[in-house]
What does this fold into?
Amino acid sequence: MKSNTRPTLIRRMSVRSTVFYFDSQPPSEARFLMEDFRLATNGAIRTGLRTGVTSRNALCKLAYKDSRRELPGLYSNHHASAIAVAAGILKNHRRRMRAGLAMRPPYLRRLMMRAENQAYKLDRKEGIVDLPVRAGLHVKLKLVVSHYHRRYLDDEAWSLGSLTLLPDRVIIAFRRTPPKPYAPKSVLSLDTNERSLDGVFLREGSSTAVRAEFPDVAIIQQRHHDRRKRLQKKKANDRRTARTLCKREGQREHHRIEYRLHQVANTILSFAKSQESAIVLEDLTGIRHKKSKDLNRRLSTWPRRELHRLIEYKAEDKGIPIIKVDPRYSSKKCPMCGSVQHSRMGTWSEFACECGWRMDRHINASINLLQTASSKGLAGGLWFDPGAFRHDAMMILYEPAMAARSEPNGMSEEAVVPP
Ligand SMILES: [Zn+2]
It folds into this structure.
């Protein structure tokens, strides 16, 4: 009775997995360490398959002694870590089995090793990882440390999580409890579209329509989509080459879009922070493509989800509250009279209602999102009147011209901060 009446509020830890490359060729011991780790992991996988044990603890009890006996040279903490990796692989394997996907027994193919935070040391100032191999033998890995890495290394609030060693890089997880979000003094409600975020900004006594435009994202997507189509046609007889080329295309597209999304997110968040705003976004989980004739021409929804992901994690770092709301009917509802339109009234870009309400469709959707948030008492108790939004005034939060360079080639100066 006492324990489950009210859930305790535990604030989620933020985890950032950060990639570091080596400053100099790692010593050969690093390679031996990964090879031993792989052996230990595959040994534990075999034990798991043989005994049918599913829990990580049970697997550890069963496999630890064998692992120590077979690889006596390996530091004891690494055995436990290898068994944990094996348990993860087995879990994944069982899931695939249930889905009818996995046929062959699993096996760790790639060279890697994982160390929990008690099993390695990091010199945060110098960027040197100290990794024990066995008693009396440690490998030191000198890492390339950039401005980006310094954010985590220099801030003691980020504690160390696990380390993953790969032949060409290490991935270190940094963890911390995020700062407590502030109590908002204003609200920024944003409707997410293919080419823009459209919304309203609401402060005590004033309200404005806002927009952040990123038309180039859809253009890039379209261009790469066409290019992939052409590649597949051209290389129809050589599927392997086609796959390689398409993959490369995909990565290029990914980088170019990602760069733009970062800029959009940064601009919006610095505005929100300066106004002490909460940000209202639609909850995109569970939204599928609408069935339409031009389904195959529709661009993927990835950039929109990615933009939300960036806004959310950056907001968490800055202590900006994010409110996610169910977007149902947000594009069909009239915020003035509350009626839901099942057939479309108004023009292509304008929402119109029988009650006389007219508004840009995207802005209208964001007003509905704000109304949902506010009806649940999530919008900081701000009172708002949809009628106060003037259609003609629009504040542009971001547009592509604000980016100082159009391509992320690293050649030109820093992005210009909009006024
Ligand atoms: Zn109406």
About this structure: Residues 186-402 form one domain.
